[in-house]
Amino acid sequence: MGESTTRVAFMRRCDSGTQWRVRGRRMPRPQEGQVIDLLLASRRLLDPGTLPHPEHVVDHPSARVVLKAIWASAMATLTTGTNSVSPDLVQVLQAVKELDERLLLDQIASQDRALQRVRAALAMLGETKSCSTLLDTAATTACSLGFDRSIVSRVADSLWIPERVHVDKDEMWAREILAVGRSTPQQLNGSIVETEMVRRRTSILVDQVQDRPGVHKEIAEASMSRSYAAAPIVVHGVVAGFVHVDCYYQQRNVDQLDRQILTMFTEGLGQALTRTMVLDELGTIRRDVDELSRRLAAVRDEGDSRVLWGHEDDVDEAPGDIRRSRPSGGVDHFLRSAPVDPTLTRREVEVLRLMAAGDTNSRIASRLVISEGTVKSHVKHILRKLGVANRAEAVSHWLRSRHDVQRERVQAGDGRR
Fold first, then answer.
1. Domains by residue range for the chain, with CATH
2. pLDDT band per the 50, 70, 90 thresholds, residue 151
3. For residue 67, which of 111, 27, 36, 22 has the smallest C-alpha distance?
4. Mind giving me the DSSP string for 289-319?
5. What is the pLDDT of residues 182-203, one digit of tens each?
6. What residues pair up with 154 in beta bridges, in sequence order?
7. How many CB atoms lie within 10 A of CB 366?
């Protein structure tokens, strides 16, 4: 109970209108504190109705917006006033100009630091050797960009399903948010804002989370987020998941810079996932080849062909039932492999992959959040580009492409040995 109360209090702001109390919120940074002081002083000289509330100062961008409002109000007073110019008013204008310049320089420095953090995060992703390890560390790595909390999710059958949650300073809270998200997966059918990430493969910025329609209400309530940024994880041209971030402990709204930083990170994450998927596949092929080599050696040494197929104890099983050890998690949680055909668009590749999986036009439309008529149009274009007469031939082309890709990977792996 105490922990929950602390979390709620952390989100509240208190202001009497003439004094700004910082209890229940983070201490403002020096420049932000100076903007608040200037705003409170300006209320005594200018019309308070034309000035923002001090609670609007939550970060550098919002502080600069408040300074613009003070400047506009002061200039309006100067142009309409009939008396001599007040020295206090001149001092306010000078203070606005000086503070705005310092905030701008600080913003530029913050951007440089943010880009350095992105480079470091992408370098970490580049060192990861497997999909499962990459996904396990993605949420923590996202927070290293300057965010306090992150959620890494997968998209499956038009469902948004959280997979990992990281909360700085509160591991228990992370588990609570993850449990809520997993128990209430959301359908990406246009009713929530995350649908836009699937449709357009673009990041989003969401503010006023607690009062806004179209957000994941259960996660919003459990996390008490004020604003968040989210970006899609794209693998083989398909939106395989999302990354959500916010700045709860910093008590600031996420902004366009945060959105851009997150976009760069998720683009790198998608590329890293594509690479580790190939590494996982190559690892599986190598294990299969090693096992087959071991059995061939056993046949040569023992003269029993049953050893070759792994059926030493069962002579009735067919040779085609050779057992394979496939990695679990990682890849399967995000995306099945898809062919790469230069004649097809990215969306046509998605449709072809789902056709090969046995999905109907209706199901494909649901999974890709498009109309069934659009799916039919894509199918027609696929058949024409591949020079085939029907869906079965198109799927056969997909299977051949996949087989060719796997064969090339095996040959490339043998060449490196």
1. 2-111 (no CATH), 130-274 (3.30.450.40), 276-416 (1.10.10.10)
2. very high
3. 36
4. HHHHHHHHHHHHHH--GGGGGT-TT-TTS-G
5. 999 999 988 999 999 988 889 9
6. 161, 241
7. 18
Strand partners of residue 16: none
DSSP type of residue 367: H
The residue type found at 413 is: G
Q: Enter the tokens of residue 242.
A: 């999302």
DSSP 8-state secondary structure symbol assigned to residue 326: P
What one-letter code names the amino acid at 196? E
Of 96, 108, 103, which is closest to residue 37 (Cα–Cα)? 96
Cα-based distances in Å from 20 to 51, 80, 236, 254: 15, 30, 51, 22
The token duo for 360 is 């109907």
Q: How many CB atoms lie within 10 A of CB 30?
A: 10
Task: Count CB atoms within 10 A of the CB of residue 79.
Answer: 7
Helix or strand holding residue 133 (H, E)? helix 131-143
Task: Please count the residues of the chain.
Answer: 417
Q: Residue 155: which of 246, 264, 247, 266 has the closest Cα?
A: 266
Q: In what helix (H) or strand (E) does residue 379 lie, and over which residues does it extend?
A: helix 372-386
Six-digit token pair at 12?
Answer: 């509240």
Q: 233 or 414: which carries more pLDDT confidence?
A: 233
What does each C-alpha distance from 102 to 158, 176, 220, 399 come to in angstroms? 46, 40, 35, 60
**Residue linked to tokens 């909360």:** 167
Rounded to 5°, the CA angle 169-173-177 comes to 135
Across the chain, mean pLDDT equals 77
Cα atoms found within 13 Å of the Cα of residue 13, Cβ hemisphere only: 16
d(CA 77, CA 365): 59
- Note the pLDDT of residue 227: 93
- Within 10 Å of residue 74's Cβ, how many Cβ atoms? 21
Structure tokens at 272: 């890293």
Q: What's 55's DSSP letter?
A: G
Q: Please, which contacts does 170-175 make with residues 24 or more away whose CB atoms are closer than 8 Å?
A: 172/3, 173/7, 174/149
Query: Pairing mode, if any, of strands 228-235 and 204-206?
Result: antiparallel
Neighbours of 258 (CB within 10 A): 24
What does the block give as tokens for 302? 């023992």
Q: For the chain, how far is it from start to end, CA to CA, in angstroms?
A: 60
Please identify which residue in the block is written with the tokens 């190939």: 278
Which tokens in the block code for residue 134? 């990459």
Give the integer Cα–Cα distance in Å for 79 and 82.
8
